[in-house]
Design brief:
Rossmann fold; 2 domains; 6-stranded mixed sheet; globular; acyltransferase activity, transferring groups other than amino-acyl groups; AB_hydrolase_fold
Length: 466
């Protein structure tokens, strides 16, 4: 496979090979299964875990099994990765095991637990200085699988290193650390060694999954080139602008090579900036990551307790998708929460949902489609899911890299349904590769279309047609 294959970093995917451990891909919802890890290998790393039965803000005992813990993966730097593990609520003895990673890089796995596919949701109500409330998520994927939510790379969430050099990681090194983590975690949880194992995730997480299963590329230029035709297709830019871009830019809308192209791209970018790129139907809002904004008067108790928090600005509007992220900031930066989750004291100061730009991170995987191609043709099952209202990674770019494989079509383009209504469209190729859109889905479709995403995941994990 040539270097023309680029991989987007914004979908979610799932892939599984016969009787092997799995790995995840890009911003799609992708699940894979890589070669089995050497689970019997001896380990010099440290590990600790605790069973959590109650959480602040959640009424009563948790209705699911939750374990939190640390696994040491690098003795020299004292690097320890923090995880949340939720056992399958249906049949933990036979249901698959899923490793779920989130984007960023360096966004906390708590996003997966509380916003994407996990069993918790925040009650979206005005924050008044008291601890935000949590409720059970009826569309949690833990109803069909046991899931490990991992704070990776180090510097994400509660994962830390005693030596500052431990934070200097990248796509390759952090992916190899995840492989080490899984080996050690399975040593500590041997009952799961025989389970079908998948890795899934969304956004930038999809970029590092096939390093765990085999390297995968970011392909950011590839995705951005599809911003223009997608924006034209949904009415953000006019026919005239699109035609001018096609004429003057010769297929490259990212790096203009002449002034006419630069002018039209500038105009297009201004128009695209008018909408939310994660979901073009949503209002543009204050982002609650990397640093959510806090209203001083309403949050004085929190700020007094965490005096080292940098600056407390404004909060997002309650009708913004980022408001739930803001609540997680208030919840996590409370000592009651830290104690309940058994966080090691003195390891993390201010918790940020996304800790980007603080530590060095090398995006050192330039291309990964070849690896995905090789894994798929070797028997891995793959599900690639794309929200059709995502401008960050338009489904057009996802379709393009899948079509570049030139696989035979097994089940042609058709609607898939939930409750008798079209929930999106799907196509299945040879080599067990399925692509599906989620109607109305955003950049991470599991967040704003949880019911439809739940149905898709449940059917695919059960090896049934969508």
């Amino acid at each position: 496979m040539g270097s023309h294959r680029h991989r987007s970093a914004g979908q979610c995917s799932l892939v599984q090979p016969p009787s092997l451990i799995t790995c995840l891909l890009l911003l799609l919802l992708l699940l894979l299964s890589p070669p089995a890890l050497p689970c019997s290998a001896s380990s010099s790393s440290s590990s600790s875990s605790s069973v959590i039965t109650h959480l602040p803000g959640f009424l009563g005992r948790l209705p699911f099994y939750l374990e939190t813990g640390y696994i040491g993966i690098e003795e020299k730097t004292g690097t320890e990765l923090f995880y949340y593990f939720v056992e399958s609520e249906t049949n933990p003895d036979t249901d698959p095991l899923v490793l779920w990673l989130v984007g960023g890089p360096r966004c906390s796995a708590f996003s997966g637990l509380a916003y994407e596919v996990g069993p918790l949701n925040f009650v979206l109500e005005a924050y008044n200085g008291s601890l935000p409330r949590l409720v059970y998520n009826q569309y949690s994927w833990t109803q069909m699988a046991s899931i490990i939510f991992l704070d990776s790379p180090v510097g994400s969430g509660f994962s830390y290193a005693r030596d500052s050099n431990g934070y200097d990681v990248g796509d390759i090194s952090s992916s190899l650390q995840v492989v080490t983590f899984m080996k050690e975690w399975l040593n500590d949880h041997p009952r799961y060694r025989s389970h079908n194992f998948y890795v899934g995730g969304a956004s930038y997480a999809g970029k590092v999954v096939p390093v765990i299963v085999q390297y995968i590329s970011e392909g950011s230029k590839f995705d951005k080139n599809f911003h223009v035709p997608y924006s034209h297709g949904v009415g953000i830019i006019s026919d005239q602008l699109y035609e001018a871009a096609v004429t003057h830019c010769k297929g490259d809308f990212v790096n203009p090579t002449n002034q006419l192209c630069a002018n039209v791209v500038y105009t297009i970018n201004k128009l695209m900036s008018e909408v939310s790129d994660g979901n073009i139907l949503e209002d543009k809002c204050v982002k609650a990551a990397p640093k959510p904004t806090i209203d001083v008067s309403a949050s004085r108790a929190l700020l007094e307790e965490y005096s080292r928090l940098s600056k407390p600005p404004i909060r997002p509007s309650m009708d913004c998708a980022s408001y739930g992220y803001y609540l997680s900031y208030c919840w996590m930066n409370d000592n009651t929460t830290r104690d309940a989750l058994k966080i090691k004291k003195g390891t993390i100061g201010e918790w940020l949902r996304c800790n980007r730009g603080v530590f060095p991170y090398a995006e050192d995987i330039p291309n990964a489609l070849d690896y995905h191609f090789n894994l798929t043709t070797r028997g891995y099952r793959a599900l690639v899911m794309s929200g059709d209202h995502d401008l960050k990674v338009p489904f057009l770019s996802t379709q393009a890299w899948i079509r570049s494989f030139n696989f035979f079509i097994v089940d042609d383009w058709r609607a898939w349904h939930v409750d008798g209504q079209a929930a999106g469209f799907t196509i299945t190729y040879a080599n067990n590769l399925t692509f599906a859109t989620v109607k109305g889905g955003s950049h991470v479709a599991t967040v704003n279309r949880p019911k439809e995403s739940f149905a898709m995941g449940k059917r695919w994990l059960a090896n049934k047609p969508l």
